[in-house]
Every structure is written in structure tokens, then in C-alpha cells.
Design a protein that fits this description.
CATH superfamily of the largest domain: SPOUT methyltransferase, trefoil knot domain
Oligomer: single chain
CATH topology of the largest domain: Alpha/beta knot
CATH class of the largest domain: Alpha Beta
Structural class: alpha/beta
Number of helices: 11
Strand order of the largest sheet: 3-2-1-6-4-7-5
Order of helices and strands: HEHEHHEHEEHEHEHHHH
Number of strands: 7
CATH architecture of the largest domain: 3-Layer(aba) Sandwich
Number of domains: 2
Strand content: 5-15%
Length: 255
């Protein structure tokens, strides 16, 4: 039952340095019913140390997909969770590991999701977190906060497994994809954000000194709205008409 519920969840590791962490991740995933591992620019993979640390989860490594960038790794996902322990100047919605697991299990009823882990030393950059609608934090004791990558994956994998057990009896109560429109996949949202930024720059609203911060705030706004693919298409149609109107106005003014 756990594996079926978690079938649509992919675990994404970004630029992992140590192959042993990839193997430990595979083992943590298999024990808790997770099957899909995606690696973004791993330093060493495949590697004997990864195979050794997988210890029975070699099939997860064999099926692992390697991607050149995070955007490609997230294609087809409608909600992305980023693991992060750092405080941020820009507010991102944040859940602890247990809350996030319950949220992921519910969101999987609407389609594919991703759980993203960053580099061993520096985690995910702000630019990479721009692709995430939710941050996930693992609460630790005050005296020491450091978890290695394999341990962090194990904690989240355990919480996900427990979440599937806790909602087993209540699963039909969650809205299904047939009842609510499926949120737009990440590639549609990224296309919209690029289009929106282009129009805001052309209009003069988006100044270079505040462009990055403003676009992050706008991402948070639309992430909360969770538009469907059709709604994103409408929004982009609005942007296209604004561009066309502006171009016609310039032509009339020069004429």
C-alpha cells in the first residue's frame, strides 16, 4: 500500500559529491517504499561505493535517472518540496518533516511530486529553491544541527512511510484528480514565470536592482494559487495580449 501511494514521488539529489550518499539514499528509499531516484550532476555515478552502501537496493540505483539540471529533473511534477536547514531572507512556506510527509501524501493524489535535497556542504541555492513551493525542515536538538545527506533522506522516507499508514483508512476523503483540476506541471509554471518577467521588464515595472527579489515574491504568490495548466495558458494569453497592445501603441506613436 505504501509503495502504491508513493509511486508518484521522485527523490532528487542535486550535485551529490560523495557516491556513498547516493547508495545510502537508495537504501533508505527502498526500505520505506520509495522507488524513483533522480540525480542532478552527481560528481561520481555509477560508483562502487554507491553500490556497496545501497546494500540490497541496487535496483534503485539501476533505475536512477541522471539529469544535467534541476529544471529537467522536475519536469512533470506539480509540487516540489525542497529540503533546507538554512534561514532565508525571503520567506518560503515551510513545514517540518512530519507535516511535509502528510502534505506530500495528499498532493500525490493529484499527480507527481518531487522531494529535493541539495549539496552536502551548501544545500540548495536560492535559485534552486525558486523551483520549490515548500521548504522541508528536520527539527534537531539545539546543541547540534548537522545531519548528513543519507540521514536526512532516511528521516523523510520514514515520515512518508508513516504518513501512508496513517491515512490508509482516510484516503478516499482526499480530493481526487477527477474532482479538482490538476495543478500545472513545473515546466508550464517556469514558462509562465519567464514570460511574466519578460513583460514586467518591458513595461518598466521590474527594475534590475529589485528584479530577483520581486520575482521570488511573485513566484510565492502564484505557488499559493496553484493554477491549473489551463489557467496558466489563460495567464500567458493575457501577457501575450499586453505585449501585442504595447507593440501596437509604439507603432502608432512613431507613426
Amino acid at each position: 500500500m505504501s509503495a502504491e501511494i508513493l509511486e508518484g514521488l521522485r527523490v532528487v539529489l542535486v550535485e551529490t559529491s560523495h557516491p556513498g550518499n547516493i547508495g545510502a539514499t537508495a537504501r533508505a528509499m527502498k526500505v520505506m517504499g520509495l522507488q524513483h531516484l533522480v540525480l542532478v550532476n552527481p560528481r561520481h555515478f555509477p560508483h562502487p561505493e554507491a553500490t556497496a552502501l545501497a546494500s540490497g537496493a541496487e535496483d534503485i540505483l539501476d533505475r536512477a535517472q541522471v539529469r544535467s539540471d534541476l529544471t529537467t529533473a522536475l519536469q512533470g511534477c506539480h509540487k516540489v518540496y525542497g529540503s533546507s536547514a538554512r534561514d532565508r531572507r525571503i520567506h518560503w512556506p515551510q513545514l517540518d518533516a512530519r507535516e511535509a510527509a502528510l502534505d506530500m501524501v495528499q498532493e500525490l493524489a493529484s499527480g507527481h511530486c518531487a522531494l529535493v535535497f541539495g549539496r552536502e556542504r551548501t544545500g540548495l541555492s536560492n535559485e534552486e529553491l525558486d523551483h520549490c513551493q515548500m521548504l522541508v525542515n528536520i527539527p534537531t536538538a539545539e546543541l547540534y544541527h548537522s545531519l548528513n545527506l543519507g540521514q536526512a533522506v532516511q528521516v523523510l522516507a520514514y515520515e512518508l512511510h508513516m504518513a501512508t499508514l496513517s491515512i490508509r483508512a482516510d484516503l478516499p476523503a482526499y480530493p481526487s484528480a477527477a474532482v479538482r483540476e490538476t495543478p500545472a506541471p513545473m515546466e508550464d509554471m517556469e514558462g509562465f514565470y519567464q514570460h511574466l518577467e519578460q513583460v514586467l521588464r518591458q513595461s518598466g515595472f521590474l527594475q534590475e536592482t529589485r528584479a530577483t527579489r520581486m520575482m521570488r515574491r511573485l513566484r510565492r504568490l502564484y505557488d499559493r494559487a496553484r493554477p491549473s495548466a489551463n489557467e496558466v495558458h489563460i495567464l500567458r494569453g493575457v501577457l501575450t495580449e499586453i505585449q501585442r497592445w504595447a507593440a501596437n501603441s509604439r507603432q502608432k506613436g512613431s507613426g
